[in-house]
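Structure in, sequence out. Go:
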């Protein structure tokens, strides 16, 4: 996954010893990959967890659609075409083609407008951020494993242990109480309002009270 870009890839290994595997396929595909595309949310969604008779809502920030990643077909087609061209040249006794020299012609262009230049800078910055973020591997854990139970317990956002700094640092998808409030109420974190400020203060006071009580 790339959490910052909301990108997910799922890789499935193919049983190459199965009866349905095409051993004569020159691509020799060993795995099958699914890549995500983000879907624009038409409504606000939340995932509910019932614990001790109480319903705890967890906001869903992104909805992704998984599609087959077919880039390997393009690579296989390029290799196949290059091999065919090489075989034809060998049979005809033709020498290998030398790379063509590309002559670049400069053409005077009108300077882009300020708004267009700013838009291009934003696009380049976005592409740099996408490439800079490294893929983070996630493992699969059975539903009743220790890791799955810990992540499920974190969805009870009112518990003091689920939002402790130690738990957040070890979680795959960390979220604090303040972030939970922002996402649930769909408020912009850069423009605080009196309503959100009051609720944040209440959460902080509640958290401080829980800490003092625990001591």
């Amino acid at each position: 996954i790339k959490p910052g870009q909301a990108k997910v890839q799922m890789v499935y290994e193919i049983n190459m010893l199965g009866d349905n595997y095409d051993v004569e396929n020159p691509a020799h595909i060993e795995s099958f990959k699914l890549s995500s595309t983000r879907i624009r949310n038409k409504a606000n969604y939340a995932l509910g967890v019932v614990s001790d008779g109480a319903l705890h809502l967890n906001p869903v920030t992104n909805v992704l659609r998984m599609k087959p990643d077919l880039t390997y077909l393009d690579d296989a087609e390029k290799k196949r075409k290059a091999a065919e061209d090489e075989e034809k040249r060998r049979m005809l006794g033709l020498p290998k083609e030398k790379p063509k020299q590309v002559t670049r012609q400069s053409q005077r262009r009108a300077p882009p407008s300020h708004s267009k230049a700013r838009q291009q800078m934003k696009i380049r910055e976005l592409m740099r951020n996408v490439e800079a973020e490294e893929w983070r591997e996630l493992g699969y854990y059975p539903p009743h494993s220790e890791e799955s139970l810990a992540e499920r317990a974190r969805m009870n956002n009112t518990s003091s242990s689920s939002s402790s700094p130690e738990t957040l640092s070890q979680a795959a998808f960390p979220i604090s109480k303040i972030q939970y409030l922002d996402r649930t109420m769909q408020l912009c974190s850069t423009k605080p309002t009196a309503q959100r400020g009051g609720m944040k203060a209440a959460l902080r006071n509640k958290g401080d009270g829980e800490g003092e009580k625990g001591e």
